[in-house]
Amino acid sequence: MSKRVSPAAVGTFVVGAVTLAVIAVIAFGSGRLFRTTYEYILYFPGNVNGLKIGAAVKFKGIEIGSVKNILLNAGKVTALQAKPEDVRIPVIIELEAQHMAAKGAQLRPDPATVKQLVARGLRGRLATESFVTGVLYVSLDFDPESPMQLVGDPSVPYVEIPARPTPLEEAQAKAAQFLAKLGEADIAGMVASLHRAVDGLDQTLNSPHLKASLESLPSAIDGIKSLSGEAQATLVSLRKLSADLNAKVGPLGGSLQETSASARETLRAATLSLQEMQTLLKPDAPLVYSLNRSLNDLAAAARAIRQVAEELERDPSVLLRGKGAAEERQ
Question: Is the dihedral of CA 131, 133, 134, 137 positive or negative?
Fold first, then answer.
């Protein structure tokens, strides 16, 4: 007869197998079955050589996730439909909520939160993990000044985080732009202009007028020094005069105020006198009328005297005979 298998032994075996399987999953999967992750996509414009699947994703140097996949194309838009300089490499990253919470993060890296952070300047770029090995990782940081350049492929089911070129790529782009502008410049004309400038400078330096000016420079400097000494002496005199004036201005202040008051009184009296004179000199004023009448009387008297003088000139005997005898004679 065959030996009957104990159900307890079978149960123990099954439980042990399941336990080993769970331990294996945890050990080989690093606990991925029990993690909450959120996936996002970045389109890098440059070369991603050195970036591997599983590479770290860091925020300001703190690891918060990893690279899940590196693709040639993530949607329906292909490289044939875009300009060569616009072709980008899609990289899918995943952010671990529990890992970020363990680091003290107050927000979960869900799509709504990440969209708000992108609007506030969250950007991604490739950074070097080691210059020896050339291993790269994805660095997330805030840069509100950088433009938000998004591919915006609607067929991609991931929220996009804008990607920036590396500092080396930016330097290479600026160098290429500089060389392009340099190639457009008229180098020959610039060199010819430089030669003309050097020739003109040489002629100026070798000019006899310049040599004569340089020779007369020491005497001019001596004259300036003498003028400087005279100016200093004048300044000392001015300072002394200023001190004397400051000492005398105080006592004179009261006298000046009294003089100013007297001048105001005198001016007021003069104003009243002028007003009175204007009143007296009006055409209809009594004084003016009397003066006019007196002038008329003087004019009449002058005419009478003139007539008498004329008669005496004609007949001097009028003084003896009188005016009546002269009239009878006539």
Answer: negative
What percent of the chain has a predicted confidence (pLDDT) above 90?
19
Condensed to tens digits (0 to 9), the pLDDT of residues 10-33 reads 667 677 777 777 676 565 555 555
Q: Are residues 46 and 163 in the same domain?
A: yes
pLDDT score for 167: 76
Its domain, for residue 318, covers 286-329
Structure tokens at 13: 């075996």
The answer to whether residue 176 scores a pLDDT higher than 60 is yes
230 within some domain: yes
Sheet strands (E) in the chain: 37-44, 56-59, 62-70, 89-96, 122-128, 136-142, 159-160
CA distance 153 to 289: 112
What is the four-CA torsion angle of 22, 26, 32, 35, rounded to 10 degrees? 80
The burial class, CB within 10 Å (0-12 / 13-18 / 19+), for 323 is: exposed
Note whether residue 31 is domain-resident: no
When pLDDT is cut at 50, 70 and 90, the band that residue 1 belongs to is: very low
Read off the tokens for 164. Answer: 């920036």
> 1 in a domain, yes or no?
no
Write down how long the chain is. Answer: 330
Same domain for 66 and 159, yes or no, is yes
